[in-house]
User: Fold this.
Amino acid sequence: MIVALTGVDGDSAVADLAEDLAMLRVAAGKRVLLVSPNPGPYDPRLFDDLVIDLSLRGQDAAPARASVILALLRPETLERDGCAELLARLKVMQSGNPAARVLVAVAHGRRPLTAHQAGCVLVFVAQLPQARLADTLVLEDGQDTYHSRHSALEPQAYKQDHKLCAPEVRHLYREVFLALARRP
Assistant:
């Protein structure tokens, strides 16, 4: 499976999320290649999964065979400029690969989204045919850790047994990888 992650040009949170999803996939026993924004040559046939960081412009051809395209939004950026460039890139990716599932995740600070920010997110997702809002990842201010409603809702046994990543990243992992396994 190929999972392509993108966001606003150069957003380091995209690379962090790609790394976390790849680590979870390796922990599940898969051979995974984490493809950086500037990859060297590689043979994708040697791996079960590719997790591709598309956080830099000029890589729109890379997700042509992706099963999932995951876009990470920052609400303050979306509110400021509408993320028109990211929206256009996602539409190009969709037109080049209409079979790909498009998921949109939102990363924001400790404060909840304002009504305006939530509206901007919903409008953004609605402009992408067949796209779906995946999850909200709350980035702790000044840290690279996530938390969200899944921190409280995840079963205690799962929290203790699977500490590799934050519960929110594990939840997103299940949405990305395990949802495809259940499809007919």
Summary: Residues 31 and 47 are 5 Å apart (CA to CA). Helices lie at 12-27, 75-81, 84-96, 115-126, 149-153, 156-161, 167-182. The mean pLDDT is 77. The first strand starts at residue 2 and ends at 7.
